[in-house]
Design goal:
Molybdopterin biosynthesis moeA protein, domain 3, Molybdenum Cofactor Biosythetic Enzyme, Chain A, 19% helix, 9 helices, 4 domains, MoeA_C_domain_IV_sf, 6-stranded mixed beta sheet, binds molybdate ion, 26 strands, MoeA-like, Molybdopterin biosynthesis moea protein, domain 2, binds ligand LQZAQKY5, molybdenum
Length: 407
């Protein structure tokens, strides 16, 4: 068998998880900047600061429906005011308030020049064309000062901020119609395996098994910001894998190759791609499950190889594909890798290799799902998180604080 650059036989050292992540991070750099309308900018990371193009409020405005008056008149003891007009939100700038008079005003309407207080509708009564204010007036003047929320030129969103609904509100309020955002990676998927068939077709055969990973990993990629760029499935045949990969690479930034990652007689994934110029960055990581995961570059494109065992594949997709995608789309690899530290509810199983096990949390802490295997499928319905358990002889007893990653 040909020697694979970056690979390790069982006698060679595997690359440590943290070292593999460091290597991934050096390659996972933003793809580039594009402009997106507000409608298309959601969940993207902004590449340039967002500045306010206008003051907000744009003028001194009423914070309540009521009557705009001058404090100077109030201070003289005047409480009955002739009403000289009505101001609505959206109205143009108005003539100044005549001293000794009031203007009926609605929330959001600009105050007439000279007015510096709004008395709420509920606190006044009308007598003919005069408004009568109460003797005692609150300290609150119910005026929103011009630029008191933000001023034109203020930095409202910093580069790297992910556009969530609140950030979208701010961009729109800043009078920004388009945002400079990092490009989203296009991700293609290639499942390999003679035994695989489309879900829905296996029962009609005696031995085929449904490809349970293609759609699941594509959804995981979408959840982490990717644009899916098609999926193909090929037999365990190096020529077929190479041909399909070549076609897929023309249309994606990241190609995820599923299966054929290991040492079997028909595990061709990495070997098949070497003639395309595959430059392996790491392969065979000292983790359980998912050891055969590999990552490399073919020119500008990124190629991630997942093992075929379903739980192993989903685990390393979460651990390596998610940060690859957040690195490429400007959020940074850490966006997918910051753990939540939680106490173990029970003693964790021990293993020589570092383990990334499926678990879920309840009031007592993290529970690692029992009897899970790299090939498990049904178990995943209860797997809300991946739990990092250190390798080596040292046990991790109940109460130990462990790193968890939401699935
Ligand atoms: N001698 C060794 N054998 C194995 C090693 C090793 O280091 N030395 N590693 C083991 C580990 S760990 C894993 S994980 C698997 C990974 O195998 P491959 O990536 O080569 O995957 P396949 O051989 O193609 O398939 C393994 C298993 O998974 C099923 N599979 C594959 N793709 C899918 C899919 N899309 N949907 C559903 N099921 C899938 C496949 O049918 C096999 O049952 O290798 C160990 N062996
Ligand atoms: O590590 Mo493999 O991914 O156990 O089955």
């Amino acid at each position: 068998m040909a020697t694979l650059p970056g690979s390790a036989s069982d006698c060679e050292a595997l690359i440590a998880y943290d070292a593999a992540q460091s290597r991934l991070a050096t390659h996972s750099i933003p793809l580039g900047i594009e402009r997106a309308s507000l409608a298309k900018a959601g969940r993207r990371a902004v590449a340039e600061a967002v500045y306010a193009r206008i003051d907000s409020p744009r003028a001194d405005t009423a914070a309540m429906d009521g009557y705009a008056v001058r404090n100077a008149d109030i201070d003289t003891g005047q409480r009955a005011f002739p009403v000289t007009g009505t101001h609505f939100a959206g109205g143009a700038s108005t003539s100044p308030l005549t001293p000794g008079s009031a203007v009926r005003i609605m929330t959001g309407a600009p105050l007439p020049a000279g007015a510096d207080r709004v008395v709420m509708l509920e606190q006044v009564r009308l007598e003919g064309d005069r408004v009568i204010l109460p003797q005692t007036l609150s300290a609150k003047v119910h005026v929103r000062r011009r630029a008191s929320d933000f001023a034109a030129g203020d930095t409202l969103l910093k580069p790297g901020r992910v556009i969530d609904p609140r950030a979208l509100l701010i961009a729109a309020a800043a009078d920004v119609a388009e945002l400079a955002v990092w490009r989203r990676p296009r991700v293609g998927f290639l499942s390999t395996g003679d035994e695989l068939t489309d879900p829905g077709n296996a029962a009609a055969t005696t031995s085929d098994i449904p490809d349970c990973l293609a759609e699941a990993v594509a959804l995981l990629a979408r959840q982490w910001g990717a644009k899916p760029a098609g999926a193909a499935r090929v037999a365990d045949d190096a020529e077929a894998i190479r041909g399909a990969a070549e076609g897929a690479l023309a249309d994606c930034n990241v190609l995820v190759v599923i299966g054929g990652a290991s040492r079997g007689d028909r595990d061709f994934a990495r070997l098949a791609l070497l003639p395309l110029g595959l430059d392996l960055v790491f392969a065979d990581v000292a983790i359980k499950p998912g050891k055969p995961v590999w990552y490399g570059r073919i020119g500008a494109q990124h190629v991630l190889g997942l093992p075929g065992n379903p739980t192993a594949a989903m685990t390393v997709a979460r651990l390596f594909l998610a940060p690859l995608l957040t690195g490429l789309d400007g959020r940074g690899t850490d966006a997918a890798l910051v753990p939540t530290m939680l106490p173990l509810a029970d003693d964790a199983p021990t293993a020589i290799r570092e383990q990334f096990l499926c678990g879920h949390a309840d009031g007592a802490g993290v529970r690692i799902i029992e009897r899970q295997m790299a090939s498990s499928q049904a178990m995943l319905r209860n797997a809300d998180m991946i739990v990092r358990i250190p390798g080596g002889a040292a046990p991790s007893p109940a109460g130990t604080s462990v790193a968890t990653f939401r699935f």
